[in-house]
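Repro case for the chain-ordering regression, as requested:
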Amino acid sequence: MSLDKAVSKPHERLADHLAGSMDAVNTLIRARMASRHAPRIPEVTAHLVEAGGKRLRPMLTLATAELCGYQGEHHLRLAATVEFIHTATLLHDDVVDESGQRRGRPSANLLWDNKSSVLVGDYLFSRSFQLMVETGNLRVLDILANASATIAEGEVLQLTAAQDLATDEDVYLQVVRGKTAALFAAACQVGGVIAQAQEERVQALHDYGDALGVAFQIVDDLLDYQGQAQNTGKNVGDDFRERKLTLPVIKAVACADAQERAFWSRTIEKGRQEDGDLEHAIALLHKHGALEATRADALAWAERAKTALRTLPAHPLREMLIELADYVVARIN
Amino acid sequence: MSLDKAVSKPHERLADHLAGSMDAVNTLIRARMASRHAPRIPEVTAHLVEAGGKRLRPMLTLATAELCGYQGEHHLRLAATVEFIHTATLLHDDVVDESGQRRGRPSANLLWDNKSSVLVGDYLFSRSFQLMVETGNLRVLDILANASATIAEGEVLQLTAAQDLATDEDVYLQVVRGKTAALFAAACQVGGVIAQAQEERVQALHDYGDALGVAFQIVDDLLDYQGQAQNTGKNVGDDFRERKLTLPVIKAVACADAQERAFWSRTIEKGRQEDGDLEHAIALLHKHGALEATRADALAWAERAKTALRTLPAHPLREMLIELADYVVARIN
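-- result from build under test --
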């Protein structure tokens, strides 16, 4: 047993520590995804919620609230809020990406239809909104409203930027902030706010979540070119086939000669892909050191996350959150 | 000029009276639909917002706030909030209904794509949320969060209920409350709340908006079977062809013999429609007095709206809102 503990992963140690609160959050999630009138709603939601995501975002809220000494119950509502926002964006993403898989299972838009995914996503977003209003904390509402707008803006930006070779690292970072980092940052920040932590601590929690989210997304993008399917649940080259201009490709395009540029334009911008193109793309990424540079960026963002947390007083949860940042990049280290 | 005024329609008189505030609301809408990073957002939104809807919902908020003596500026934010929520639901509805037209123009999902409609809808919903948080009024947030959940729940319910002959008038009313009446009711109610009106007045405004919204939707459903395209911008029979079980059909199904039931099952539930089916459907609606009964329901809801308002003190805006209820049903009277 103690051996199990010793080798468990940081997010599992965090989950162990937060198990009691997380049970309460899961109960709340199940209660609030119910619908008296429309049974389709809990069907679709349960498919996704019960599929066993890591619950990373609600754990961040529970951990930061406890780290700041919070004693009440509102952090449970905020954790459920954050998970509902995340689930709503997954449902809408699957429609937008025309995905067939999510968390290793057929996606909701395939099992039901796009209509159900759009409308149940809207319902969960409304439910998240009700939950946060119940905290009666206007600062928390402001943070989560702004995060929601950043998420939606990032998603729209990605629509137009993803297949445009002019997309540079600044635009990539805006998209990533929207896709991933905004909700990580808000999840951490509201934990501090609900605990009435000092302003510089709230800011440190925000900065931790933001940097953790950016690192998380960069790792995801990198593994798409060099991961192994058995470790990641993704197939190498999915992003390339879906013509997504992620960080490794942006770095390679920045170094491309005319012939290489034509290759990227054909495969990503125009989407005319042939046999052997993925292999050639990976060769170009290696040639320009793009994978190595992307890896260095992910590590730097994880370091930034840890640095932000170190301004907080020592606390077992602070150490677990620092380990979590290491864990996020461990898959590429 | 005075003649023009004399024959103008009630919603135009209301618009005249509220012109100054509505200009401010339109300025706010334009400012908030901007996006620094994603120009696709204002493109899609402007297409819909500038297409010239009647702005009925924001007018209800401005009118009820003024009617209750409100002096501040938050009613402008709430009016913009309500219009953003409405626009977001239109964008998502067009994806769900696979519509090709909206407000007499090609719908956004055709001009851009379903992805843009989903994500820009999400963005507008987030923006509406930011606007209402700026009022700092938790009661208002609670009302609008609940309305949003009712809207989304009604839309999901409609997905499963629309083509099911077991759908009765109670389920129809739940769908209509979600589709239309919840936002009308919230738009009216928050006007009273922001003005700190007495509780029974806030309730009266809610009841007015709810009944007005139900009347509005029933009229819409009725005109689909007996309107004239030049008056309504809709083609007779659109709901029938889209297999929507609206109030006239629900009433006719309730009186149907076995043969008629088989007809409705084939055309609405199974969607196997043939030439002459629409004419036969309309004949059945007449046979059972379903159109007349639907019309009577719409008038009764309009009457209920007016009765709710009459509990408020006399005020020119109270009279205009009473006239508005008459106007909503005038198209079928």
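Ordering looks correct now. Chain A has one domain: 9-330.
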